[in-house]
Amino acid sequence: MHYWLVKSEPEEWSWQDQCSVESEPWNGVRNHQAQKNMRAMAIGDLVLFYHSGKAREIVGVCEVVRDAYPDPEDTSGKFCLVDLKAIQEAKTPMTLKDIKATPALAHLALVRQPRLSVMPIDEDAWKVISTKAGLAA
After folding, report:
1. What is the CATH number of the domain that holds 82?
2. Range of 48's domain?
3. Number of compact structural domains in the chain
4. What's the Cα-to-Cα distance from 56 to each of 10, 40, 48, rounded to whole Å?
5. CA–CA separation, 25 and 68 (whole Å)
6. What is the 3 state secondary structure string of the chain?
7. 87, 58 in Cβ contact below 8 A?
8. Structure confidence by residue, pLDDT tens digits, 2-30
9. Is the C-alpha dihedral spanning 67, 68, 73, 77 positive or negative?
């Protein structure tokens, strides 16, 4: 199993929106590095759901329920989607400020590449975030 983080503007697609559906295609990603990360996702991988914009906090965890597949909106054939299912809300959302203040998380793309919308999270960082956010590890 691998771990990931996806970002969404809550005005566009919020954690509450994600929780209101059985599963949802993660769409709108056009950055090639983010797309490469999506292609590496597999069914059963866990994904931190991060509200970007003004909120800037990890608010929950999703599970990948469908491997990468072609984005039907993309006529070029370059882009893919994965389907995500909400599985747990953070008891204590972890803010970007908290993440930046945690030395064990300084290496994350969330800190180093703030514009990247889909990124891997290593197992050690996952454990730190899970503990601080009150998520099942």
Report:
1. 3.10.590.10
2. 3-133
3. 1
4. 10, 25, 13
5. 10
6. CCEEEEEECCCCCCHHHHHCCCCEECCCCCCHHHHHHHHHCCCCCEEEEEECCCCCEEEEEEEEEEEEEECCCCCCCCCEEEEEEEEEEEEEEEEHHHHHCCHHHCCCHHHHCCCCCEEEECHHHHHHHHHHHCCCC
7. no
8. 999 999 999 999 999 999 999 999 999 99
9. negative
The tens digit of pLDDT for each residue in 44-90 reads 999 999 999 999 999 999 999 999 999 999 999 999 999 999 999 99
The answer to whether the CB of 28 falls within 8 A of the CB of 70 is: no
The whole-angstrom separation of Cα 46 and Cα 21 is 17
